[in-house]
C-alpha cells in the first residue's frame, strides 16, 4: 500500500510499520507543498529582519546569544548538522531509521517547522529509493528530541556521511547521485527543524507496540498450551469470574484462552470428581491477569503514541500567524515513560512464562510427565537447558525493566539541564521485545513436547494447530538432539507470525 503523508492527519502505527519494515511507497499529499510554501514565506521574512531570531539568525543551545550575519547562515545550518551528527556505537536497525525519517517528514509537512518544499521532498525521495542513513546507537538524550540520530539523517540529505543501500554502506553523495536525488543546501531554520523531534523514540515505540500486540496473543497461546500440558483447569477463565474485576485486558486474555482450550480432551480428562487438586499454581491460574495487565499497558502506550504522532514538534516552532516561538515540546518524557512501562510489562509476561516452563520440566510438579520431558531421563537431559536459556533471558529482561526515564544528565552548558533519556528507553525496549519473543518460543517448544507426551489424549484444535506448526520445523519427543536450532526455529515462528496465524486459522482473530 502507498502511505500518504498529509499535513492534517497523523500517521498510524500500521503506516509507520509499513514504511519502516515493508518499504511501502511514500506519497506527499498535494496540500503538503501548499502548506510548506506558505509557511516558508514567514521564515524568509524573519530571515530578512535585522532582529535576531533563534533558529534563523542565532547560534544554538547555549550559543543562542550570538547573532549570525546573513553571509554565514548557510554555513550555520551546515555546521549545526555536521556537529550534531555525533552518534557512536553499533548501527541502529534500518527499520528504526526509516520510521524516524517518515515521522520527521510528517512533522515537516505540517508547516510548523518552516522548511522549504524541496527539503521535505528529499526525505520522501530517500525513503522511496531505499537509502537509509547510518545512525549509531548512542548520542540522543531524548531532549531536545533525538538530536544526533536525526542529524545523521539530515547529513545524508545534504549529501554527506554514510548510508545503507541494499545492505551496503556507501557515501551518501554517491547514493544520492545514483538515485537522481539532488543534495539539499539547507536554508535558514532548516537545520534545526530537521533534528529537533522525538521521532526516533516514537518510531521505536510504534514498532514495539506492533510487536507486543502479536506477542501478547502468543502469550495466551503458550499459556493455554501449558494449562493443557500441566492438566490445569479452564474454569478459572470463566467470563463471570472476569466480570468481577473489570480490567479490559484481563477479559480479553481470558476470552482468548477459553477459545484456545475449547474442545480439549486433555482438559476434559480431569474435570470429574476423581480430580483431587483444588487450585492450579499462580502461573496457570493468573495467566490472564498478567497478560491482561500487559494489554492495558499496551493500550495506554498506543494512546500516547497516537498523540505524539499527531504532534508537530520543533523549537522554535512556527505558528499559524507567522510567529516563531520557543517551547519545550521536544522533551521526550511522555514517550519515555511508556517505553519504560512496556519494558516492565514485557519482563513480567516473560517471567510468568518461564515459571510455567519450569513446572512442565519438574517431575514433582508436572503431574505425570517425565523429568525434563526427556526420552530416557538420566541418559537424556531433554529440555533441561532450554529452561536455563529462558531463565537467563528473563533475568536480562528484569535488568532492562529498570527505567531509563528516571535518569537525567545535564548538557549544553546547563542550558539543557533536564533530559528524558527516551531514546535509551526505546533502545532497551527493543532488546526486551526480542527477549520476550525467545522466552515465549521456548514455552511453546516445551508445551508442544509435553502435549505430545499426553497422547492418546488430544489437545484442543487450536493448540493442536500450534503444535503442528512447530512440528513442521521441529521433530517431536525423542532422544536428545542438537537443541539450539530447534529453539531458533520456534523463535522464527513466533517472530514471523506463522505460529499465531496457524492458531487463528482455527479460532479466528484473537484479541
UniProtKB/TrEMBL annotation:
GO molecular function, one term: histidine ammonia-lyase activity
Record-level GO BP terms: L-histidine catabolic process to glutamate and formamide; L-histidine catabolic process to glutamate and formate
A Gene Ontology cellular-component term: cytoplasm
Biochemical pathway: Amino-acid degradation; L-histidine degradation into L-glutamate; N-formimidoyl-L-glutamate from L-histidine: step 1/3
Annotated keywords: Histidine metabolism, Lyase
Keyword match Lyase: yes
EC number assigned by the record: 4.3.1.3
Transmembrane segments annotated in the record for this chain: none
CDD domains: PAL-HAL
InterPro entries in alphabetical order: Aromatic_Lyase, Fumarase/histidase_N, HutH, L-Aspartase-like, Phe/His_NH3-lyase_AS
Superkingdom of the source species: Bacteria
Catalytic activity: L-histidine = trans-urocanate + NH4(+)
Subcellular localization: Cytoplasm
Family: Belongs to the PAL/histidase family.
Protein name as annotated: Histidine ammonia-lyase
Amino acid at each position: 500500500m502507498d502511505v500518504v503523508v498529509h499535513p492534517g492527519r497523523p500517521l498510524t502505527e500500521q503506516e509507520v510499520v509499513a514504511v519502516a519494515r515493508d518499504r511501502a511507497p511514500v506519497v506527499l499529499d498535494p496540500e503538503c507543498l501548499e502548506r510548506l510554501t506558505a509557511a516558508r514565506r514567514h521564515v524568509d521574512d524573519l530571515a530578512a529582519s535585522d532582529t535576531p531570531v533563534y533558529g534563523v539568525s542565532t547560534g544554538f543551545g547555549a550559543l543562542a546569544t550570538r547573532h549570525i550575519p546573513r553571509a554565514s547562515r548557510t554555513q550555520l545550518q551546515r555546521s549545526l548538522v555536521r556537529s550534531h551528527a555525533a552518534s557512536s556505537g553499533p548501527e541502529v536497525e534500518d527499520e528504526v531509521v526509516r520510521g524516524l525519517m517518515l515521522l520527521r517528514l510528517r512533522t515537516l509537512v505540517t508547516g510548523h517547522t518552516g522548511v522549504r518544499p524541496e527539503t521535505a521532498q528529499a526525505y520522501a525521495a530517500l525513503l522511496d529509493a531505499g537509502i537509509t542513513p547510518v545512525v549509531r546507537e548512542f548520542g540522543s538524550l531524548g531532549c531536545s528530541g533525538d538530536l544526533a540520530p536525526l542529524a545523521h539523517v539530515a547529513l545524508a540529505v545534504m549529501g554527506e556521511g554514510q548510508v545503507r543501500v541494499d545492505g551496503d554502506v556507501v557515501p551518501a553523495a554517491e547514493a544520492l547521485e545514483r538515485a537522481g536525488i539532488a543534495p539539499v543546501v539547507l536554508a535558514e531554520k532548516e537545520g534545526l527543524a530537521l533534528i529537533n523531534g522525538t521521532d526516533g523514540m516514537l518510531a521505536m515505540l510504534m514498532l514495539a507496540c506492533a510487536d507486543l500486540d502479536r506477542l501478547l496473543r502468543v502469550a495466551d497461546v503458550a499459556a493455554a498450551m501449558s494449562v493443557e500440558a500441566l492438566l490445569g483447569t479452564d474454569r478459572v477463565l470463566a467470563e463471570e469470574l472476569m466480570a468481577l474485576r473489570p480490567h479490559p485486558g484481563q477479559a480479553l486474555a481470558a476470552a482468548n484462552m477459553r477459545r484456545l482450550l475449547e474442545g480439549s480432551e486433555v482438559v476434559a480428562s480431569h474435570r470429574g470428581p476423581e480430580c483431587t487438586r483444588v487450585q492450579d499454581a499462580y502461573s496457570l491460574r493468573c495467566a490472564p491477569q498478567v497478560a491482561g495487565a500487559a494489554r492495558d499497558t499496551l493500550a495506554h502506550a498506543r494512546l500516547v503514541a497516537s498523540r505524539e504522532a499527531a504532534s508537530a514538534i520543533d523549537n522554535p516552532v512556527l505558528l499559524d500567524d507567522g510567529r516563531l516561538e520557543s517551547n519545550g515540546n521536544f522533551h521526550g518524557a511522555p514517550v519515555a515513560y511508556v517505553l519504560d512501562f512496556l519494558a516492565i510489562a514485557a519482563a513480567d509476561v516473560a517471567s510468568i512464562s518461564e515459571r510455567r516452563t519450569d513446572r512442565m520440566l519438574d517431575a514433582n510438579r508436572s503431574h505425570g510427565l517425565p523429568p525434563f520431558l526427556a526420552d530416557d531421563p538420566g541418559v537424556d537431559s531433554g529440555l533441561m537447558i532450554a529452561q536455563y536459556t529462558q531463565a537467563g533471558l528473563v533475568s536480562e529482561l528484569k535488568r532492562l525493566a529498570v527505567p531509563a526515564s528516571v535518569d537525567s544528565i545535564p548538557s549544553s552548558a546547563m542550558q539543557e539541564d533536564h533530559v528524558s533519556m527516551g531514546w535509551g528507553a526505546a533502545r532497551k525496549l527493543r532488546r526486551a521485545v526480542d527477549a520476550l519473543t525467545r522466552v515465549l518460543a521456548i514455552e511453546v517448544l516445551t508445551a508442544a513436547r509435553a502435549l505430545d507426551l499426553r497422547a492418546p489424549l488430544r489437545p484442543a484444535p487450536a493448540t493442536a494447530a500450534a503444535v503442528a506448526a512447530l512440528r513442521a520445523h521441529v521433530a517431536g519427543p525423542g532422544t536428545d538432539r542438537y537443541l539450539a536450532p530447534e529453539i531458533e526455529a520456534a523463535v522464527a515462528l513466533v517472530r514471523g507470525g506463522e505460529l499465531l496465524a496457524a492458531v487463528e486459522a482455527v479460532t479466528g482473530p484473537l484479541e
